[in-house]
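Just curious: can you write whichever protein you like plus the matching structure tokens?

***
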Amino acid sequence: MGVSVEGLTRILREHFHLTRFRPGQLQALQHILEGRHTLLVMPTGSGKSLCYQLPALLNEGQVLVISPLIALMQDQVRALQRRGIPAAALHSLESSEEQQTILRRMAANLYRLVYVAPERLQSQAFLEALPRNVGLLAVDEAHCISQWGHDFRPAYLSIHKAWQALGQPTVLATTATATPLVQDDVIRQLHLPAVQRVVTGFNRPNLYFEVARAEDEEAKLTCLRAALPAEPDGSYIVYVGTRRAAEEVADLIQTTTGLEAAYYHGGMEPEARRRVQARFQQNRVRVLAATNAFGLGVDKADVRAVIHWDIPGSPEAYYQEAGRAGRDGKPARCLLLYSSEDRALQEWFIDNDAPSAEALERLHEALSLARPEKDGYCSVDEGALRRRLGLNEVKLRVGISLLQGAGVLEEQGRDGGRLLYTMTNRAPLNAGPIMAQVQSFRDYKRQLLAQMIAYAEGTRCRRRTLLEYFGDPDISVVDPCCDNCQKARGAA
């Protein structure tokens, strides 16, 4: 449909209380409204979500948003509802009755946006139940569809099947962290006839990049204390590598600085996470120690520093997390506390990210034993299954995703701690080919970690190192830029 720039600006002002579009937004919107599939690559905090939320107000069918995290879906739905925009989310925390209600309301065009987890798209029954009145299919965090992305989710590979089932609506794929290699793979995995690219660049001139060598916890704590002002004028995020570290670092901050600090990680109950996030958003706590479970969709403008206690596994992960600083455009600091021993944690994550071949075969056998119940689905208690097979939560989820990717089962959702699924192949599993793919992926992750270590140990401009990694040709001079540039000027 044709909508003038003036018309789009009016909607922007009336519904989003903004006066002008940010770079790339208007171009992406025009592509979408002309029915062109679009890949949008914009820095963290630059307004990607507006590019699928605004079209939802133009009465051209509902927008179906594929989003990777339930918390992210819930946050965006609440924000839309506060603006008076009807929205809902379909995810595993809702009962089957609640999901059926949302689907009926969706069929009646009572929503403008509906969010859904990618895992739901792997269910043929769910695809058949989805109404066909979708005008735009939005793929948030689109790098998850690429095995070369830093957060590959096999469930994203089902998007093309969903697109076909929905009648091939216009697609908008958005991401903040995609190298040219990942961009190409995203387009390839979506299997769309033609895709427009809108890439606005990765440079965030207001961010100052710095690495502090700190070989032990005491040295890291000294650097951290120096980075936290006695009277914070904004908010501070300290990213850590493990759940235990989140709790320990929050406690260290409180006991050694007197500042109130909270922790956030994926092992907390959903309500506890929601309370912590609300306190942080409302400035009732200024310092948050968190794992990478915190961040997606968090829109807090006054974060003055993002400090990494542990090195992330890739430049993409680092830049995405560091990019949560300075969204108000004011100067902000991105500080990495680096120890040469830190790589061991990330190497452990790489080596332990999936079950063994034997465990995968035993998982398949256990799931094959269940028989369909009255609704046609098989059902198994996930907690009991983990204990029986000796798998932790992560390895069980990864194992299920690997089996889905191999085409031997379809996940149908979760209900009260039980996994609902259908088996498509009960024959004994040979996990060899699957594990070969896992090994290839692990090798690639080691390459990403090596790039991250090169950033931490390098002596050239850190901003240039990151921008070159993402294929950004921006050569504009930024001052202040990074600690290496500052050292170079001092030595000149």
